[in-house]
Write a structure and sequence with these properties.
two-stranded parallel ribbon, seven-stranded parallel sheet, alpha/beta, Rossmann fold, globular, 286 residues, single chain, 7 helices
Length: 286
């Protein structure tokens, strides 16, 4: 992994990265390590968590603290904060990357699936922010970055996560105002379609179709998202709070990735078969 930032930029800093065992979260954790930061990675999947922490520690010669945490459960979040402060004595950065969703038409989403996504992506993110503020940042300041999504024009087949991520953007603005007096800067990074481990959850035609309608004609990389997060954590971001940075190759400005079916009574043609498909509604994993 390469970065444009200097190697010692985050020396003596401490960060928590949720969803830090794979994909974007793992890239963020690696980027922080490269720049001298002490890192705690959190996830529900203990096996992946331990594997990633061991690999990062070996690659960079720095301890990476793995912590099993379901961000839908406040006691586990509080335990994560306690473990971080107990090991490192401080908490400078929180990157709320943990989340999950599944593809499904809105009419087919069951209550369990809706609640799981909202509780993880919205409530879990809020609980992480609130816990970090209460345990350390209220008295010492800090930086928080929330990872959201490209949901600006609606999010067909992802209504649950679109609603949750839009709420996180608004929540971030509110917290930026309320916590400014405490020296807490909080912002969002909104990735577009990124070539990451999460792609295995979607049909193979999804990333191919996305790349065709992105103005830059390619998918983003996890490294590009990590560098965007680093901006908000760095001195360059010291006068930015309540903002959302779209890192999507222009995808939120252009493109038609969702074909609207014709109504059966218009005579304009048959309805495409996709509304009848039923995607698996697994509980999201961070």
């Amino acid at each position: 992994m390469k970065t444009v930032y200097r190697e010692d930029l985050f020396a003596d800093r401490v960060a928590i990265v949720t969803g830090g065992a794979t994909g974007i979260g793992l890239a963020i954790a690696e980027a922080l390590l490269m720049l001298g930061c002490d890192v705690v990675i959190a996830s529900r999947n203990r096996k992946r968590l331990l594997t990633s922490a061991r690999g990062l520690s070996e690659d960079y010669g720095r301890e990476v603290l793995p912590f099993t945490c379901n961000i839908r459960k406040r006691p586990e979040i509080d335990a994560l904060m306690d473990a971080t402060l107990g090991r490192f004595g401080k908490l400078d950065f929180v990157i709320n990357n943990g989340g999950g969703q599944f593809m499904a038409p809105a009419a087919q989403i069951r209550e369990k699936g809706w609640n799981a996504v909202i509780e993880t992506n919205l409530s879990g993110t809020f609980q992480m922010c609130q816990a970090a503020h209460a345990c350390f940042m209220r008295d010492h300041g800090g930086r928080i970055v929330n990872i959201v999504a490209d949901m600006w024009r609606g999010f067909p087949s992802m209504v649950h996560t679109g609603a949750a991520r839009a709420a996180v953007v608004n929540m971030t603005k509110t917290l930026a105002i309320e916590w400014a007096k405490d020296g807490v800067l909080i912002n969002c990074v909104a990735p577009g379609t990124i070539l990451s481990t999460g792609m295995h959850n979607y049909p193979p035609e999804v990333p191919e179709a996305a790349a065709r309608v992105i103005p830059l004609k390619r998918l983003g990389t996890v490294e590009e998202i990590a560098d965007s997060v680093l901006y908000f954590l760095s001195p360059a971001g010291s006068f930015t709070t309540g903002a959302t940075l779209r890192v999507d190759g222009g995808g939120s400005l252009w493109g038609d990735g969702f074909q609207i079916p014709d109504r059966p009574d218009t005579g304009a043609g048959p309805i495409p078969p996709w509304p009848e498909q039923r995607w698996p509604q697994h509980v999201p994993d961070e």
